[in-house]
User: What shape does this take?
Amino acid sequence: MSITLEVTARVFPLARVFRISRGARTQAEVIEVSLNHGSWKGWGESVPYSRYGESIESVTSQLERVANLIGSVDDHEHLADWLPAGAARNALDCAFWDLKAKMAGRSVADMLDLPVAETCFTAQTISIDSIENMRESAKALQGSPLIKVKLDPESVVEKIKAIHEATPLSRLIVDANEAWKIDDLRAVAGPLKEYGVVLIEQPLPAGEDAALEGYECPIPLCADESCHTRKDLAGLRGRYQAVNIKLDKTGGLSEAMALYNMAKTMDFSIMVGCMVGSSLAMAPAYLLCKQADFVDLDGPILMAEDRVNGFCFDNGRMWQPSNGFLWGAGRNPPEL
Assistant: This one.
């Protein structure tokens, strides 16, 4: 019996407007992939990202072009030949892992010999807004262990100072999403360290990383847009101290694991991150959280309503529900 592929576009309204340096959104648009093989169904989710030239239409087209190539679970090995790293390959790779786990009656974690965190703490995100509104957002997260703050070049220190005063015990990650110049970074890094910032994520545009050569930033720098797969790591040495691993960049869990392992051998700190998606998109990435230095999988928190059987969250603490059925458990969920 052959495998059939189903591709569905879904929209999840967000609980509130989400702003980063390159724009705002009110909903998450995702691709859901299902691989059907007899009574088994493996599924996965990805988030097409316009920054990388992706859209719902382009990712759907990519997946439809490879649908006729899929005949059995063994075709999982050919994904990297069929599709580039990105959202299309991510959804299909994760669907293959879920299908194989169900057919074997074993969890994906067990199949890959991955230690799974019973619980972890994820960063919670404050999006770009006025100083006062960002202060109020911080008050709502007061006491959270880790907060990520989206910033453009405007009022950087003032905003972080206000957030730090609202929740002084929280560690802060600043995410510029490529919006700064090297002079911006040099000007704010010292003050940011005083206000509890422990990591600065992608301050400069990807492709302008050479400006970081020789700069000894007082806060570790994390590559996001500049790091997609293992091939990018060599060029990040001497510029960044950490990498953000997102399955929508790597093209799925398979390459994400390889990137994780190689980055560790090269002494990079690891962040496991996400686009704005549902718990189905978080579940494969969660397998990498046990030994990660930073976890940023708060996508479902930003949604007005998550999927059934999604992750549980409490003041930044994140865990899978006791049924563990959503993805990768080696058994069918009670409701899809």
Notes: The chain has two domains: 4-107, 120-319. DSSP finds ten helices and 14 strands in the chain.
